[in-house]
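Give me the fold.
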Amino acid sequence: ILGGFSQGGTVAILAGLSYPKKLAGIVSISGWCAYRETMAEKVNEANKATPILLSVGKGDPIVTFPLTKKSGELLQSIQIAATGEDNVHVIHANRAGHPPGPSEMQAAGAFIMSQLGLS
């Protein structure tokens, strides 16, 4: 599983989806989808159906809600077009700051445990 926060979340999405070996999942908190115009072309066959947890803050002043919301929608559309499935889980968190809240961290932990078969 790859994961990250803010720019690290952006890198986790790009690196994870383009990686040539199957991953168990990708976690991005306050991250966004880079290369939005060409992202579908960057997704490796091995990770077209990889589960993704994308958590976005509705009031995040650093990585804005419209950007992260659109990123979630884009990732969902890419995955559905490639596999017919939607394994992108988007959380719209009620927070005004950039750092994640406790509920987002709990959701990330539960997602990781689930993807690793530990829950």
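Residues 65-83 form the longest helix (19 residues).
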